[in-house]
Amino acid sequence: MSIVETHKLTKVYGTGDTAVTALDSVNLHVEPGEFVAVMGPSGCGKSTLLHLIGGLDRPTSGQVILDGHKLAQLNDNALTELRRHKVGFVFQFYNLIPVLTAVENAALPLILDGVGSGEARARAKQWLERIGLQDRLTHRPDALSGGQQQRVAIARALVTEPALILADEPTGNLDSRAGDDIARLLRQISDEWGRAILMVTHDPRISAYANRIVLLKDGTIVDDTHISGAPQ
What we know:
Blueprint: E1 4-13, E2 20-30, E3 35-39, H1 46-53, E4 61-66, E5 69-70, H2 76-86, E6 87-91, H3 102-112, H4 117-130, H5 146-158, E7 164-168, H6 176-193, E8 196-200, H7 204-207, E9 212-217, E10 220-226
Helix pairs in contact: 3-4, 3-5, 5-6
């Protein structure tokens, strides 16, 4: 079963003469453990697609099915609960809390979900160590490089053990070397830990790390290509 499916997913902003169609009847599926890159020109609907799949916005029409759940049938509380446990979000800007250490930042979703502090920190530490930050556990964001901050944000996204990671331009604020490191890490998360990843990027070099590239133009999918291998 696909971890996420969209059926004729449409999003229109505004009404009448000022209406703008951001997405137009998009049909997409992402399988467990698959790494999909979404590309296209600015304003083509890439981020809108991620927001609708993640339940951060509601479609004008069409349907999102996330891990077997039809999002349109869920009330706000149920949607929040599903999102909290099934989806991890990674953004271009890391959105870390400056006064918290790497472990504390990564543990935050578990703390907010009612997990005890000790267990939350232990699980956060485990993910930070897995992704190569074992020597930065007690550092605050201002003592970390951009790439390290993004790794903390990725650990925070993974700490609830979600099936799907939604990454919106995760390398957009990094230099090319750090960007490649993050893209390589996302590929590892897909290959080794079986998480599905749907990543928006404008960078063809970064998209080459994915298993599949979906091209959006004017709110519709114009190409969907499976690729093999990844840059080393």
